[in-house]
């Protein structure tokens, strides 16, 4: 992958456990963040969300750490196979939107695209620590996830992306929960893969549109953006 630009993905957040980055996620609304359920199992204490994060080391403009108040793990989540791998985090205080912080809408996969973009602070090599800067990568789709088996890959609730030999890189450890984006919409969040070295398998993402009823039931509808000032048009 490549380093992202400061403020390029204002909806992306870092999830921390005792101040250490563990996963990615994105801003759903001013009180809710979406991430992977697998990020939160076993990390029930002292989880915070960092908005406007770019560097894990330096303080960034508008960077703000907000404690998690409540976890909502999708009730269908299966810990063995990581199916329905989705969770909402309600925050202790609202997110303030700004130049480097904003929410993003999510939508169904657009089949006219042959790729999507994923961003996070994942390790740069198998077994490595998180990247100190937010990075991004283009991944090809659709990919073939049959190697995972029918228990682990369920097409109507998952997206399979990343083709070895075609893509330069793939998500890695610490990228779980990170958004998968097409155009202006998030279509999935990283759930699981099998390593990210030279011979990586495709990554499985949770297909967000499949969970629309549960997401809106827990977190309500997403904000409506302010109308653009069209001047005299």
TrEMBL record:
An annotated Gene Ontology molecular function: serine-type endopeptidase activity
Superkingdom in the source lineage: Eukaryota
Listed transmembrane segments: none
Keyword Coiled coil carried by entry: no
Keyword Disulfide bond: yes
Keyword terms of this UniProt record: Disulfide bond
GO BP field: proteolysis
Domain Peptidase S1: 1-220
InterPro entries reported in the protein's UniProt record: Peptidase_S1_PA (IPR009003), Peptidase_S1_PA_chymotrypsin (IPR043504), Peptidase_S1A (IPR001314), Trypsin_dom (IPR001254)
Protein name: Peptidase S1 domain-containing protein
Species whose genome carries this gene: Daphnia pulex (Water flea)
